[in-house]
Amino acid sequence: MQTGCVACRTERRTFDIAMAFQPIVDAETGLPFAYEALVRGPNGEGAGEVLGSVAPEDRYAFDQQCRVAAIEDAVAAGILDTEARLSINFLPNAVYSPVACIQLTLKTAHATEFPTDRLIFEFTESEEMADTDHVANIVESYRKMGFATAIDDFGAGHAGLRLLANFQTDFIKLDMDLIRGIDASLPRRLIVEGVVRIAESLDIRVIAEGIETVPEYDVLREIGVRYFQGYLLARPGFRCLPTIVMPDPPLAAVA
């Protein structure tokens, strides 16, 4: 007797994709806490071009193949030689059953000897969710299976803080538009400080993404953010783990 949802058993389109990897850096150690897998075309084509070719009926197949490519390419790039986690983007609306739809991911992790407790699954807040209860069930199911979860682009999407009222992920990733120019904007600083305090109270770790300048980095460190991702530290490496360049500490920290 077959098990799992219909989509899991249906033959679907095959996508020619590869992955780039960008580190999420622990500012306290200067080491990669995780690498986010970013979908690319086989020759490095951008995510927008790849995603634009995915029809609604192929979302499940695309989501599944991205998970496989993320793990296989990360292992090939040498992630097992580090202690870093692997953060994989997923489409909540493409997950029919958390348990059934994770089986190919688990099979790939076992085949490549990648520890499943080092997996993080992140979904973007900017994707409108037809059923937040369904997403909450995915988050809770993944937690029971030992995976961490993250809300990407937090503060730029459809739901805002309402998501955290309905369910709590292990991480939230502050959207780059929220922190762009935070060093020169009191409103942005106050908003981010509030989000960080709320996250701390809920035992959620905050990642600042899209960091491009040292002043932005310095202000966020003052606020208490520990994890960073952005061009200031490293650009995505196509099928490789890029070198991290940490900014010099501010003079006040050195004195």
Automatic annotation (TrEMBL):
<protein>
    <submittedName>
        <fullName>EAL domain-containing protein</fullName>
    </submittedName>
</protein>
<dbReference type="InterPro" id="IPR001633">
    <property type="entry name" value="EAL_dom"/>
</dbReference>
<feature type="domain" description="EAL">
    <location>
        <begin position="1"/>
        <end position="250"/>
    </location>
</feature>
<dbReference type="Pfam" id="PF00563">
    <property type="entry name" value="EAL"/>
</dbReference>
<dbReference type="InterPro" id="IPR035919">
    <property type="entry name" value="EAL_sf"/>
</dbReference>
<dbReference type="InterPro" id="IPR050706">
    <property type="entry name" value="Cyclic-di-GMP_PDE-like"/>
</dbReference>
